[in-house]
Give the backbone structure.
Amino acid sequence: MYESEIIHESFRLGAAFKRQRHLEAEEKYGDAQEKPPHGHGRILRNLVLHGPMTQSGLAEILQIRPQSLTVAMQKLEEQGYVQRERDPKNRRQILVSVTEEGKKHSGQLDTERESTAKKLLSALSEEEKKQMYELLLRINGEDCDA
């Protein structure tokens, strides 16, 4: 009965989150060159969580095409946030890993993301947030041991 409305509202929530993050980035960085490009936080966060991996493995986790990741990886490498090295177990593969500077930057982005989430979800009680989280985990096919 409400399936399409739920999906619609979840997309609206995602769009509101992106819009708020964009506004906060504009406020913090203005037109400065050091403004982190969209999606770099997700890349760094996954490398921090999962450790070194191939670019195609990272693309699979992010659910994007490997080609879409190439430009972002080059920028992150130029900024010193990631490094690429040959896999010692399989010399034909290149592993991407996060640097110490990348870990620090990822932590800053996580803090900013958390602040944005708190603003957007401030209309909910702690119990409602917990319920929402558990429902989203169930929808995404994950265990609900929160």
